[in-house]
Specification:
- The chain has 8 helices and 7 strands.
- Helix content is 48%, strand content 15%.
- Strands 3-2-1-4-5-6-7 form a 7-stranded parallel sheet, sandwiched between helices.
- By secondary structure, the protein is of the alpha/beta class.
- The chain is globular.
- Helix 2 links the parallel strand 2 and strand 3.
- It has one domain: Rossmann fold (3-Layer(aba) Sandwich), CATH 3.40.50.720.
Length: 260
């Protein structure tokens, strides 16, 4: 197993990509601390981790709250006897959909930036302190292909994912001398409940059917295939393992060819 005896934190671990990533890390040998705001969903995933023979700890955390994140990392250090090997930042929000820049409320824009950039920064800040002390570690952030190009009517979300890329690259520079790899996976549209809600909202605003919105996404992809959560989990596994030992500050795009 590629992650035997490794200790991992996964934020946003309750559903969709987060759950798939958590279970993939566990199948490859990692013990996992799962964190999100929805503890009921976290408990279900944690039980699946334990069924795989790995240890799991659930901690409710708002990743934008400095005190809660600091406390979560302290609990992780206790659970893992002081060693955190992997951090995967999945937690994030979608924000305004089908809305041009001039119609976005300032508060809504700030909420997305706060959730997706600050919510990635704070876990990195406190986990990196532990990793620097041990002079090793792997951090994998979840960005998005909307952070590689402009994304019509999604200014807040696109801006936040550009920010995650910048944060990832700069943290990689800061942490490199301590043997720590910091990379980002950039998914396109992923087949999760969040995608369903996105399609429903676009359909409502446009007066389309959900099927028409879904097909529009398919038509934009070279492979004509929507990404599944496991596709993202496999990319995360690669970056969390020694297979990527000499990669840092890099982006892996998993989007069916949407951004080509």
């Amino acid at each position: 197993m590629r992650l035997a005896n490794k200790n991992a934190i996964v934020t946003g671990a309750a559903k969709g990509m987060g759950a798939a990533i958590t279970l993939t890390l566990a199948r490859e040998g990692a013990d996992v601390l799962l964190t999100a705001r929805d503890t009921a969903a976290l408990d279900e995933v944690a039980e699946q981790v334990r069924a795989l023979g790995r240890r799991a700890q659930v901690v409710s955390t708002d990743v934008t709250d400095d005190g809660q994140v600091r406390a979560m990392v302290e609990k992780a250090k206790e659970f893992f006897d002081g060693r955190i090997d992997i951090l995967v930042n999945v937690a994030g929000v979608t924000g305004p959909i089908e809305m041009p820049v001039w119609d976005i409320e300032a508060e809504d824009f700030s909420y997305v930036i706060e959730s997706n950039i600050r919510g990635t920064f704070l876990p990195m800040k406190y986990v990196l302190q532990a990793m620097v002390a041990k002079r090793s570690g792997k951090i994998v952030n979840i960005g998005g292909t909307s952070g590689l190009r402009g994304y019509r009517y999604r200014a807040a979300y696109s801006s936040s994912k550009w920010g995650v890329r910048g944060l990832t690259r700069t943290a990689a520079i800061d942490a490199g001398e301590y043997g720590i790899n910091v990379n980002v996976v950039c998914p396109g549209i992923v087949h999760t409940p969040r995608m369903d809600k996105l399609c429903e909202e676009k359909a409502r605003v446009r007066g389309w059917t959900v099927e028409q919105v879904y097909q529009e996404y398919i038509d934009d992809m070279i492979l004509k295939s929507v990404t599944e959560p496991q596709d993202i989990a496999d990319a995360v596994l690669f970056l969390a393992s020694d297979d990527s030992r000499n990669m840092t500050g890099q982006e892996i795009t998993v989007d069916g060819g949407w951004d080509v």
